[in-house]
Amino acid sequence: MWWLVRVTVLAGAAELLLLRLLTRTAVHIPGIATLGGPYLVVVELGRFAYYLGAVLLSLTLVGLAWMLARRASPAAVTAAASLLLFLGAAVAARLGLIGDAVLAPISVLAVEIIMLAGATRLGAARRASVLLFGSAFLVSSAYALFQANATETAGTVSFAWLLPIGEFIVLVWCVEAPLLLRRRPDRASMMWGIAVALATLIALRMGEATTKILLLWDLGLAGYLPDLAYALAFGTLAYALSRAVRSGTSSVATALGLLIVGGLGLHSTYQTGFVLAGLAMLSFDSDGGSSSEVRDRAL
Question: What is the pTM of this model?
Answer without folding.
Answer: 0.89
